[in-house]
Design a protein that fits this description.
The chain has about 270 residues and is an all-alpha fold. The chain is built from twelve helices and no strands. InterPro entries: MazG-like_dom, NTP-PPase_MazG-like_C, NTP-PPase_MazG-like_N, NTP_PyrPHydrolase_MazG.
Length: about 270
């Protein structure tokens, strides 16, 4: 019988969690669901947990953040356990690799470089070191290493930043706004004269340029859209609450009534 002492030792820290995952994945005595999982099946949960961490931070819910960080840590432990089973890597090798990377990327803290640099100087140093790392991986292209499976808006921003580092960028936001007008006109033309694939392409071009505008304005497009989503949710829930006070649901209302209620909710928010 396996020794459960470590499993039930609340003071054991990361070793306890690693042992729990080893037991869950044990082919003889583990959990059938956990045993069946692989990297691909767990990856969506990893992404979901990262977003839940971001959501807790957005809401300044520190108690929930503690739990969400634990859930995210579990994802790392899960992947490293599967990596160890397949002979790819271990939790300790993953920890060693990121520790080595952080030391190498901070010579002004852990090496001989001076700390007397601006944040901009340190950002340039960081990018220079990362470029050398990519070169060592035979990633010589400017856009190499930008993960294809990133959320599309985040990947657009990263691609644009990479291109900007080598001078492929508009000089200021006004040029980006001109491009937005151009792409908007092309989308309207595609809608009126072309098929679904062409319309989707033009729509994608417009989204890409909108992300670029956010970058030029010093904004995070993902964060801006998250805030817009939250605002829409809040205001629509306000519309539903006002309809409920009238004994109605959205399905029993119409656009004109809901639009008027939307304006009222919006006005109340601004007044408050």
């Amino acid at each position: 019988m396996p020794d459960d002492a470590l499993i039930h030792d609340a003071t054991a820290g990361i070793e306890r969690l690693l042992e729990i995952m080893r037991r869950l994945r044990d082919p003889e005595t583990g959990c059938p669901w956990d045993i069946e999982q692989d990297f691909a099946s767990i990856a969506p949960y990893t992404i979901e947990e990262a977003y839940e961490v971001a959501d807790a931070i957005e809401r300044s819910d520190w108690t929930e953040l503690e739990g969400e960080l634990g859930d995210l840590l579990l994802q790392t432990v899960y992947h490293t356990q599967m990596g160890e089973e397949a002979g790819h890597f271990t939790f300790q090798s993953v920890v060693r690799a990121i520790s080595d990377k952080m030391v190498a990327r901070h010579p002004h803290v852990f090496g001989e470089d001076s700390r007397d640099k601006s944040a901009e100087d340190q950002t340039r140093d960081w990018e220079r070191i990362k470029a050398a790392e990519r070169a060592g991986k035979a990633q010589g292209g400017t856009l190499d290493g930008v993960a294809p499976n990133l959320p599309a808006l985040l990947r657009a921003l990263k691609l644009q930043k990479r291109a900007a580092r080598v001078g492929f960028d508009w000089p200021d936001a006004s040029h980006v706004i001109d491009k937005i007008r151009e792409e908007s006109a092309e989308l309207v033309e595609a809608r009126d004269t072309l098929g679904p694939d062409e319309i989707e392409e033009e729509f994608g071009d417009l989204l890409f340029v909108m992300a670029n505008l956010g970058r030029h304005l010093g904004l995070d497009p993902e964060q801006a859209l998250r805030r817009a989503n939250a605002k829409f949710t809040r205001r629509f829930e306000g519309v539903e609450a006002r309809l409920a006070a009238m004994g109605k649901t959205p399905a029993q209302s119409d656009l004109a009534e809901m639009d008027a209620l939307w304006d009222a909710v919006k006005a109340d928010e601004k007044a408050g």
